[in-house]
Design goal:
The chain is of the alpha/beta class and 610 residues long. The chain has 3 domains: 241 residues, Aminohydrolase, N-terminal nucleophile (Ntn) domain (Glutamine Phosphoribosylpyrophosphate, subunit 1, domain 1); 198 residues, Glucose-6-phosphate isomerase like protein, domain 1 (Rossmann fold, 3-Layer(aba) Sandwich); 142 residues, 3-Layer(aba) Sandwich (Rossmann fold). Helices cover 34% and strands 23% of the residues. It has 17 helices and 27 strands. Strands 3-2-4-1-10-9-11-15 form an 8-stranded antiparallel β-sheet, with helices on one face. The chain has a 7-stranded antiparallel β-sheet with strand order 5-6-7-8-12-13-14, with helices on one face. Strand 16 and strand 17 form a beta hairpin. Helix 6 packs parallel to helix 11. The chain is globular and about 80 Å long. The N and C termini lie close together (10 Å). 54% of the residues are buried.
C-alpha cells in the first residue's frame, strides 16, 4: 500500500518528487524518503512519520539533481521508523518497493550466510542486497534485475536507481500497481497516475510480469525473460485540481460535498432519465451473456463489501437470481462453488485491492463471467475483468470513503434495474418509480449534505463517548455497518453496526446511559419495527440519535437527538441519502477529537497487499 514515484529529465527533481509523494500519501504515511542523482552524486534523505517531517531535510539533497526516486510507506515488515523507511540505499544503489516479498526470510538467511549485513527489518532490503550481489557479476542492470526477479515470490513494484548508470531508471511490476508518465525530454513513474497529472496526461500502465527502463527520452518495456515488448499509451482524463482541497478543511469534507454532483453525473451517463432508457454498454450488460447466468457472487473488502450487502437487496429481487456476498479476504480460501453459470462481481474503488484482485483471477480460472465496479480506469481489476462499470466519481483522497461508497450504491441500483429490464422483470410501475427517484436524487443529496451545520453542533454533545451502536433494518442494515465503520476509522471510537432485529439477541446487554445508539429509521417498510427497536433501547436508559424523515414527530419524541434527512419516494434510493448524515457525524466527531481525518492512523487508502 506504499506509494512510489520517480523522475528522470533535465529539471530539478526534488520538488517534483516531493509533490508526487504528497499526492500519494493517501497510500501510506508511516515514513517517507527521497534519493536523487546529480551526475553520479547520490543524495539521500528519509524520515519517520508524515511526509511533512521530510520537507526540512530536502535542502540536504544536491540542488542540481535531475533524476530520483521517492517513497511514502505503510509499514508491513519492520516498525515505522527512519531506518526502515525507503528508499533503501547502499553501494550506490537505491530502491523503492510497494508490495510484500513472501520468501524474504529464506533469501535473507542465505544472504547473511554469504556475508551480507542488513541495516533494516524490511523485506525490501533483501531485494537491494540481492541486486548488489548480482551487480558484482554483471554491470548490466537489466541482467542483474532479471536474476533478482527470478528469486522473488510475492507482490512487488520496484523502482531502482544506480549511480553508475545515471541515464536510466529501472522498474518492475508484479502484483502491485505501477504507471509510467511520458513527457517531453523527461519521464516519470508512480504507483498512481494521480502523482503524474500535474506534469503529463500521457501514460503507460504496466502489466504484471513487465520490466521497464526509462531515460529522459525513451521508455522500453521487457517481459521477465528479457524479451522487449510493445506497449500502448493511455490519455489520462483527470485534472490536477481534482486532487486539491479547493478551500475545504479536509479532503473528506470536500468529497462529502461532491456527492450531489457525482450522483448527477453518474445518472446522466448511465441512464436516460427523460426517456427511461439504459446505457447498457456503460453499465456492463452489453458485454455479458445473460442467458448463462444462474447465480451471482459479489466480493469486496471494507466499505465496498458493505455496498455489496445493499447491492444484494437490489439485485436479487430485481433479477430473480440468487446473490451471494462475501469478503474478498476470505472468499478464495474456502473453495467457493463457482462455474460458467456464475456472474462474479468485484467491487474496488482503487481497482488495486489485492484480496479482491486475487478473487477476480480465481473466478476467471473457474470460467465465470467477471464484472468489476471500479472508480479508477486502467487499474488492475478492470484489466482482469470481462466488463467494468466505472463510477467516475473522480479521485478520492480521504482514506475514509464517502463519495465512492455512494457511487457504489448507485452503481448497484442502476445495474440491478438494467439487469431486470434485460430479463423482462422490470414492470412499468417499478420503472416509473425508479426514474422519478433518479430525477430527484441529486437535489435531495444536496439537501442531505446541508444537514452538516446541525450535525456539527450535535457532535459537541457526543464526541467524548467511547462506544456507539448503529442499527438499521432491511437495506439500511448495510448503512448501519458503514456508519459504524466511518466513526471507527477517523475518530478511533469503538462502534458496531447491527440489524435492528438482532439487538435483542445479545448486543442489547451493552445498552445503558453511556452507550449512544444511532438508529437509521426512514419511513419505509421497516419503520414500525425500527420504532420498536428504539423503544427497546430507551427502556434500558440508552441514548438514541435517530436519522429519519424531515418532520417525523413520532421519531423525534422517541429520540434524544434527531437528524432530519430528506426522504425520497423510491425506497431503494433512501439508503444513499441516509448515509450522508452518518458521514458528516463521523467527520465532525473526528474534528472535535482532533484526529487526522484524511490520514487516520494505521490505515491506507488502497490496500495492495494481502
Amino acid at each position: 500500500m506504499c506509494g512510489i514515484v520517480g523522475y528522470i529529465g533535465k529539471n530539478n527533481c526534488i520538488e517534483i518528487l516531493y509533490d508526487g509523494l504528497k499526492r500519494l500519501e493517501y497510500r501510506g504515511y508511516d515514513s517517507a524518503g527521497i534519493s536523487v542523482l546529480a551526475g553520479k552524486e547520490l543524495g539521500h534523505v528519509k524520515k519517520e512519520g508524515k511526509l511533512i517531517n521530510l520537507e526540512p531535510l530536502l535542502k540536504q539533497l544536491p540542488a542540481n539533481a535531475t533524476r530520483g526516486i521517492g517513497h511514502t510507506r505503510w509499514a508491513t515488515h519492520g516498525i515505522p521508523n527512519t531506518v526502515n523507511a525507503h528508499p533503501h540505499v547502499d553501494d550506490n544503489v537505491a530502491i523503492v518497493h510497494n508490495g510484500i516479498i513472501e520468501n524474504y526470510e529464506e533469501l535473507k538467511a542465505a544472504l547473511i550466510e554469504d556475508g551480507a549485513v542488513f541495516k533494516s527489518e524490511t523485506d525490501t532490503e533483501v531485494v537491494l542486497r540481492l541486486l548488489i550481489k548480482e551487480l558484482r557479476n554483471t554491470k548490466d542492470v537489466g541482467e542483474a534485475m532479471k536474476a533478482v526477479i527470478a528469486q522473488l515470490v510475492g507482490a512487488f513494484s520496484l523502482g531502482v536507481m544506480v549511480a553508475d548508470q545515471p541515464d536510466s531508471l529501472f522498474l518492475v511490476k508484479q502484483g502491485s500497481p505501477l504507471v509510467i508518465g511520458v513527457g517531453q525530454g523527461e519521464n516519470f513513474f508512480a504507483s498512481d497516475a494521480m502523482a503524474l497529472i500535474k506534469h503529463t496526461n500521457k501514460a503507460i500502465f504496466l502489466n504484471d510480469g513487465e520490466v521497464a527502463k526509462i531515460t529522459e527520452d525513451e521508455v522500453k518495456l521487457y517481459d521477465f525473460s528479457g524479451k522487449e515488448i510493445e506497449y500502448k499509451y493511455t490519455t489520462l482524463d483527470m485534472s490536477s485540481e481534482s486532487a486539491e482541497k479547493q478551500g475545504f478543511r479536509h479532503f473528506m469534507l470536500k468529497e462529502i460535498h461532491e456527492q450531489p454532483r457525482v450522483m448527477s453525473n453518474m445518472i446522466a451517463r448511465l441512464v436516460d432519465v427523460q426517456n427511461q432508457g439504459f446505457n447498457f454498454e456503460e453499465l456492463g450488460l452489453a458485454g455479458l451473456d445473460l442467458d448463462r447466468i444462474t447465480n451471482i457472487s459479489m466480493v469486496a473488502c471494507g466499505t465496498a463489501f458493505y455496498s455489496c450487502l445493499l447491492g444484494k437487496y437490489y439485485l436479487e429481487p430485481m433479477a430473480g437470481i440468487p446473490v451471494n456476498v462475501e469478503l474478498a479476504s476470505e472468499f478464495r480460501y474456502r473453495q467457493p462453488w463457482m462455474n460458467k453459470s456464475t456472474l462474479f462481481i468485484s467491487l474496488s474503488q482503487s481497482g488495486e485491492t489485492a484480496d479482491t484482485l486475487a478473487c477476480v483471477k480465481h473466478a476467471k480460472k473457474q470460467g465465470c463471467q467477471v464484472m468489476s465496479i471500479c472508480n479508477v480506469k486502467m487499474s488492475s481489476i478492470p484489466r482482469e475483468s470481462d466488463v467494468t462499470l466505472y463510477m467516475e466519481a473522480g479521485p478520492e483522497i480521504g482514506v475514509a470513503s464517502t463519495k465512492a461508497f455512494t457511487s457504489m450504491l448507485l452503481s448497484h441500483y442502476l445495474f440491478a434495474l438494467a439487469f431486470a429490464e434485460k430479463r423482462g422483470r422490470l414492470t412499468p410501475e417499478a420503472k416509473k418509480s425508479a426514474f422519478n427517484g433518479l430525477k430527484c436524487l441529486p437535489l435531495m443529496m444536496d439537501q442531505a449534505v446541508d444537514t452538516g451545520v446541525a450535525i456539527e453542533a450535535l457532535c459537541e454533545k457526543y464526541y467524548e463517548y467511547p462506544n456507539f451502536i448503529f442499527m438499521g433494518r432491511g437495506n439500511n442494515f448495510a448503512i448501519a455497518l458503514e456508519g459504524a465503520l466511518k466513526l471507527k476509522e477517523i475518530s478511533y471510537i469503538h462502534a458496531e453496526g447491527y440489524a435492528g432485529g438482532e439487538l435483542k439477541h445479545g448486543p442489547i446487554a451493552l445498552i445503558d446511559q453511556h452507550m449512544p445508539t444511532v438508529a437509521i429509521a426512514p419511513q419505509d417498510f421497516y419503520y414500525e419495527k425500527m420504532l420498536s427497536n428504539i423503544e427497546e433501547v430507551k427502556a434500558r436508559s440508552g441514548k438514541v440519535i435517530s436519522v429519519g424523515k424531515i418532520g417525523d414527530k413520532k421519531l423525534m419524541r422517541l429520540s434524544d437527538d434527531y437528524i432530519a434527512c430528506p426522504a425520497i419516494d423510491e425506497e431503494n434510493l433512501q439508503p444513499i441519502l441516509s448515509v450522508v448524515p452518518l458521514q458528516l457525524f463521523s467527520y465532525y466527531v473526528a474534528v472535535k477529537r482532533g484526529t487526522d481525518v484524511d490520514q487516520p492512523r494505521n490505515l491506507a487508502k488502497s490496500v495492495t497487499v494481502e
